[in-house]
Amino acid sequence: MRQAAAGSVGRVPSGGDNVTTQQILDTMRALLVEVAASQADNAKLCRTNEELRKDLQQVGESATDERAPPVPLRARPMPFSRAIMNTVLPTTSLGPNVSFTGVEDPEAHLTTFHNQMMLTGGSDAVYCKMLMSTLSGAMLVWFVSLPDGHITNFDQFATLLREQYLMNKAPARLSYDVFDVKQYQGESMKDYLNRFGIQVVRLKPTNEAMIVHAFVKGMLPGPFSESLLRFYPKTFTEIRRRVLAHIIADDRVTQKQALVGPVRPRAVVRPQPMRVHEATTEKKGAEKPYERAHVGARARSDSPSKHNF
To answer: How many domains is the chain built from?
Structure first.
């Protein structure tokens, strides 16, 4: 029927422009029959797809039932409390780029962690989760061995970390250890000042006069150390300024010494003009007047004396 209707729709009524109303009605009936047949086919395809989907779902459910049941989240060791675990980390925050394996200084690790977390910030629970993400190796094994829900805040977590690896903590330094900083042979004043300044930051001495005395005492003898002894500085800031002026002056002297001055041009020596009489006698090979006088005097000196005494 669908092919017959399509054939009737595809044929053009004969008779030119004289199309009757009956022919138009026949064409419309044929189109309606075609649409009804297409709808029936679509409904049949939909029923077939639904049956296939149900079959695939049943196959997937049967395969899932055969697998091992998933372990609940709370069945694993969770040292954090439920409030910390329920806190969601912000998606825009980047974790700290530091790792702690258990052989480093825990205080240094916590300091580095705090410095990096200052850029992102977050709540106390976020700090706990971020600090846990920096643990690796033996530290991670220790963390998992803690009781469930044992850690409730970040201060408690940091205290447990310090106490567990207390033996790795660097020994406390005293302020007078700054006297151990000495200038090495061949070390520049800039390098010595930077190394001394790092120790001052670490030791945090409060006596300004002690810092100045330790710096002057650790210097090697030289022109700059003599200038500091002649005009003794009062603060470490003054030492920095004077060292900077000394470095600039040394650089200028070094650049000046590296310069090579131009070679002084030699004076052009012109030959002295000869006299006319000397030029003519030289050409003839005759003796010069002063040579004749010299020869005559020598001959007279060689002749015997008239008087013998």
So the answer is: 3
